[in-house]
Every structure is written in structure tokens, then in C-alpha cells.
Sequence to fold (94 residues):
Amino acid sequence: MTIDVREAVSKAKNHLNQIIDLFGNVNDIRLEEIELSSDNKSWLITLGFLFDPPINQQKNLPDVLKKAMNIREYKIVEIDAETGELKSIKIREL
Fold:
């Protein structure tokens, strides 16, 4: 039994949410890209999220500038298309 795209995205988000605290202060998680690998064995789900700027860079800045400093980061979550198991989470280069 293979998993469909909705289930693959759901699993990718769940796996990322389980470890998101390791990345620091993260918000605005979004689905960016979906791809089925050329061999049809993996779903490649790209999720993007914002990092808050480091505290030392936030001092004495108005809130609007703090938000403008947020950095969008992208991760590719690879999900096994057959089992739905996590295969990897990698940095998505732009």
C-alpha cells in the first residue's frame, strides 16, 4: 500500500514538528514544494519556516525591523512512499 500526497505531507509536518525545537525559535511553517522521486519510492516534501533573529541583533530595534530580520529556512523531508516512514531531513539549498 502506498501513501498518497496528503498523507506524505502530513507525515513530513509531523516529523518536523517533533524536532523543530532543536532549530531555535521557529514560526510560520509552510508547505513549499512536493515531489515524487523519479523512482517513485520517496515523497520529497519541502517545508519552509522563519527563524527569529538572534537576541543580540534584536536589542533596541522596533518590532517591525525585528520581523524584517527573520530568516526563511527550507528543509526537504523525505518520506518513504510505501511505508510513510521518515528517510531523511535535509537542508534545501536555493
